[in-house]
Amino acid sequence: MNSFSSWQIFALGSAFFAALTAIFGKIGVSGINSNLATLFRTVVVLFVTAGIISLRGEWQKPENLPGRTILFLVFSGVATGLSWLCYYRALQLGPVSQVAPIDKLSVAMVIVLSFIFLGEALTLKTILGGLLITGGAVILLL
User: 110 and 89 in one domain?
Assistant: First the structure.
């Protein structure tokens, strides 16, 4: 069996923390407007990330960053914000055990979008994984 690559370890960490995000978010969004809850969460993310960057000495001057990088990070930030707003509203209205897996349809969507926009390969394994994720989400939607 192959050992995990560092990107796989971080991806598993992402999945674990996303699971905690769903549980903590469902509890935290009760009794508060979902948009306000998203703002609060965003501020916490800002401070945690700024703290990590500070501790690691990774600050860079914005003028040293390529314009294309900044543009696409802005696009990513807008997409993240809209995703979080939708996610927290869905958590407020529905069961976390169904909201979180349906949210993970993003995995199947990114497989398609990465093929279209980034030219990434569509392997049988990738297609099958995407179809299984989609099938699971469809079952939850029924």
Answer: no
The predicted-structure confidence for 69-116, as pLDDT tens digits, reads as follows 999 999 999 999 999 999 999 999 999 999 999 999 999 999 999 999
Q: What are the residues whose beta carbons fall under 8 Å from the beta carbon of 11, sequence distance 6 or more?
A: none
Q: Are residues 123 and 65 in the same domain?
A: no
pLDDT tens-place string over residues 32-63: 999 999 999 999 999 999 999 999 999 988 88
In a domain, 99, yes or no: no
Find the domain containing 10 and state its range. 1-94
CA dist 9 and 5 (Å) reads 7
**In the chain, how many domains are there?**
2
SS3 assignment, position 32 = coil
Q: 3-class SS at 2?
A: coil
Identity at 21, one-letter amino acid code: T
Dihedral angle over CA of 33, 36, 38, 39, nearest 10: 180
